[in-house]
Amino acid sequence: MSRSEPPAGRHAVVCGAGAWLPPRGVSNAELTRRLDTTEEWITSRTGIEHRHLVDGGLSTGDLAVEAGLLAMKSAGTSAVDAVVLATTTPDRLCPATAPDVAARLGLTGVAAFDVSAVCTGFLYGLASAAGLIASGLADHVLLIGAEAFSTIIDPADRTTAVIFGDGAGAVVLRAGNADEPGAVGPCVLGSDGGLGDLISIPGGGARGRSSGRDRTPNDEYFTMRGKDVYRHAVHRITDAATTAVDRAGWHLAEVDRFVPHQANQRISTAVAERLGIEPARQVSNIARVGNTAAASIPLLLAQAAEAGQVRPRDRVLLAAFGGGLTWGAATLSWPDITAYSAIGSSPAAVPAA
């Protein structure tokens, strides 16, 4: 696994957080009317009761803009030098979605790029944003995780259609010191491309287009081998989280809040048990929003901070596992900020600087 530790002098510090969900809410009861399943089966297998889905032409970029506005409102500034967007569902294959998001946020001219690591995307983006700050390339970075995952799910596949939801979360990072609230600790990242077929979308890319074979509608849908994914996810997240805590100089008993990617409640529970983190120190929103992939961690952070479940100076452990295969973990001291989250409504104007 690779590591990312900003050098002394310039450190990435979280100074704003926001989250946004599309207005359309979908309950388990609604899904059972078109899928061969029951509400009890969905809840017992996933922990999910409700999720939000895009409709009416809403896209990943739209979600990202709304979350970005809320994060900048939280930070009290629009003075951003770079926009990093973690997503599995870009608005189109080319160009990247981040430059369009930046332009719509009034940030034309800044660096902007997408990061693709599926559900681990936010942590890969966090390491990238911290690197931009540590190197001096940026003083402020807007990091967004946004997904319209329902657009790549087979609506007739009960194994995936019940799990995923759409949404976006974002944080603003600024240059600061390693010992102040909001400071991002070491990031631990890993991958195993030899197991890439466990989570994939077979079609749409260069390999499928150049193969010469006829494409089918199923080629464009997300596929996942659930039992294998569960086994690898629990092992990799546990290992990465333990490593991140150790590199931060913490003990697992000192973690105030465990904020895992909301993949499946059973995965989160299994990892927490292996880490010795009891339920009182775990934070979750999967019951209400489902698995929002790269948006999961920042969305959960913003909602939890707004609700007072994550408090200033809390020692926070972040962890995720996704397609690639990819995985990662990071530590964070939570800042004293006002986080914002919204469903379907647009935020007020952001201060100019």
Which features characterize this protein?
Peroxisomal Thiolase, Chain A, domain 1; five-stranded mixed beta sheet; globular; 30% helix; 353 residues; single chain; six-stranded mixed beta sheet; 24% strand; 2 domains; 15 strands
Structure characterization notes:
- Pathway: Lipid metabolism; fatty acid biosynthesis.
- Residues 246-334 form the Beta-ketoacyl-[acyl-carrier-protein] synthase III C-terminal domain.
- Its main location: cytoplasm.
- It is an enzyme of class 2 (transferase).
- Residues 113-193 form the Beta-ketoacyl-[acyl-carrier-protein] synthase III N-terminal domain.
- This protein has 353 residues and is of the alpha/beta class.
- The chain has 2 domains: 8-179 and 339-343, Thiolase/Chalcone synthase (Peroxisomal Thiolase, Chain A, domain 1); 184-333, Peroxisomal Thiolase, Chain A, domain 1, CATH 3.40.47.
- It contains 11 helices and 15 strands.
- It has helices at residues 28-32, 39-46, 60-75, 98-104, 121-134, 158-161, 206-210, 226-247, 265-275, 286-289, 296-306; strands at residues 2-4, 11-21, 25-27, 50-52, 82-86, 111-115, 140-147, 167-176, 184-191, 199-200, 223-224, 257-260, 315-322, 326-333, 340-343.
- The strands form 4 sheets. A 6-stranded mixed sheet has the order 6-5-7-8-2-15, with helices on both faces. A 5-stranded mixed sheet has the order 1-9-14-13-12, sandwiched between helices.
- α3 crosses α4 (98-104) and α8 (226-247) packs parallel to α9 (265-275).
- The longest helix is centred in the C-terminal third of the chain and has 22 residues, at 226-247.
- The mean pLDDT is 93.
